Amino acid sequence: MALSTQQRDALYAYVANLLTESLNDTRDPSVVDMFVSDIASVAHNALGDVVETWNRTACGVMCRLPMELLAQSFSWLDLTERAKVTAVSRYFRSVALADSSLWARIELDERTPRLTDTLALLLERSGRVPLDVHIYVQNEDVAALFAPHISRIRTLILDKTHDTSWITAPTLDISWIFEQPAPLLELVKVPPVRHLQTVLPLPAWAPLLRRLELPSTFVLPVSSGHFDRVTYFSGWMTTDFAADTDASRLFELFPSLETLQLSFTNRYTSVDNFPNTRVPRTLEEITLHDDGDGLNVPALLALWHGHPFRIVNLHSIYAPLATAALEHMRSVASGPWHLDLGQTECELRTEHEAVYKVNFYDRYAGFTDIRDFLGTFGSIVAPASVFLQQLTMLFCMPCLHSITLRGAFPTGPSDWELFDGRLFVPQLQTLRLEPYHHAEERWQAGELQHCSRCTEELFRRFTLEDGSPLSKIPRLVFSEVARPYVGEEYWAWIYQRASSVYIEDELLWQELEATDT
């Protein structure tokens, strides 16, 4: 909306009158320029006042809220939107800046422009309240900004950026985290740092610490004190460019551990360096990761035989660790156990629902590797192709009562005729089939035909103790995807090899029991 002619003429006359008076008082050009600037400044200030008045009127209910409630509503916004609030109006800005807690949760990703300047501003606005920090560190200057504030940091998570050259540099210094008292610190997570060994301070450094994820090998403090509140700890036992960790006293220093993660690089370390004192009763979950030949993991896990973990995660690039997992399982549970077999991983579960997850990366977990333990399995779940490829010899599974095959089934005899092994499964009760789901009907029909041929062949591999074929199984169960196809002629054989047929829990067919005449 433009000024009317009358408004323009009136404004012109008023400004011209002011300028005339100014020129009558002085003819100094600099003074006249200053006078003109004052006129522009008055107009600018008037604009700000008018806009603020309009904002206070237009925002309605928001501006009638008590300042405490308005600040609380701002806390629901993410940090970027919260910063925008300070530009809405003077009132909003004053409320937002008056509440330091609004700026105390610092979560910035690697795409944040001018990250260093942004962090400095947030640290200033947060005053003296406790800080929760989660940032992607781009250089040492960013991390160093927090050093003067370590005493009020409650959570400190430093993540890697895609450009990690600074992290692998030998000059990186994170000692500021551990060199000053941190009375509020509860969680520390630092990304892996090469060429570094972290020296842990005495427990008095962070008396409230609950979770500690170290970026490197570490040196435990020589102290009779304990980190009594720490329930989660992770660190490196070996790395390529630093001395090995001596973690023999780890459980003494952290007596309340619930979760432990230890990593190894390409070399074997002495068993004397392993945590070898009494395992805390609270320890329920462990993760062991070995990038080398995998010898460290079985040796370490063997020290803890008899301790009933709830979750065990084992990772190795080259070594098959299923045997180590099963040996530990045998030390705490008798069976029957469950095996979920994949291409490069397997999941094992005890009868008490303790879970062991084993990742192999470069190879699959096979029956041959764990043949000495097959007698303890009560159920197996596996991709159909992986399961059939295991049949290289006679495998005895006297306790096995359930098999589930899922995913794409081999397309023809050439895919499994080389595998002529058999399964001794006298207690087998249920075979469940979960064929791969295809969007197109013609592909789905083909998948079910492959499933039928492979399953019929598999039945020929099931044997009893004397080597004779297993005549029937009590339950053959299909997943829902098979419903339109189970009546096809190529499934006719199932009525001679199964006593009952189900789609999920729905009974489709059941063999009539013979009666005496």
Could you explain the architecture of this structure?
With 517 residues, this protein is an alpha/beta fold. Among the domains are: 65-100; 372-517, no CATH class. It is built from 15 helices and 23 strands. The strands form 3 sheets. The chain has an 18-stranded mixed sheet. β21, α15 (494-497) and β22 (500-503) form a beta-alpha-beta unit. α1 packs antiparallel against α2 (29-58) and α11 runs parallel beside α12 (322-332). The longest helix is centred in the first third of the chain and has 30 residues, at 29-58. The relative contact order is 0.04. The model is unreliable at 166-171 (pLDDT under 50).
List keywords for this structure.
517 residues; 18-stranded mixed β-sheet; three-stranded parallel β-sheet; 23 strands; elongated
Layout of secondary structure:
Blueprint lengths: L4 H21 L3 H30 L2 H4 L2 H8 L4 H7 L4 H9 L6 E4 L6 H11 L5 E6 L3 H5 L8 E7 L16 H4 L7 E3 L7 E3 L11 E3 L3 E3 L12 E5 L13 H4 L5 E6 L20 E6 L5 H8 L7 E6 L5 H11 L4 E5 L3 E5 L5 E5 L17 E7 H6 L4 E3 L5 E6 L14 E3 L5 E6 L5 H21 E2 L11 E4 L15 H4 L2 E4 L2 E5 L7
Parallel strand pairs: 1-2, 2-3, 3-4, 4-6, 5-7, 6-8, 8-9, 9-10, 10-11, 11-14, 12-15, 15-17, 16-18, 17-19, 18-20, 19-21, 21-22
Antiparallel strand pairs: 12-13, 13-14, 22-23
Helix pairs in contact: 1-2, 11-12
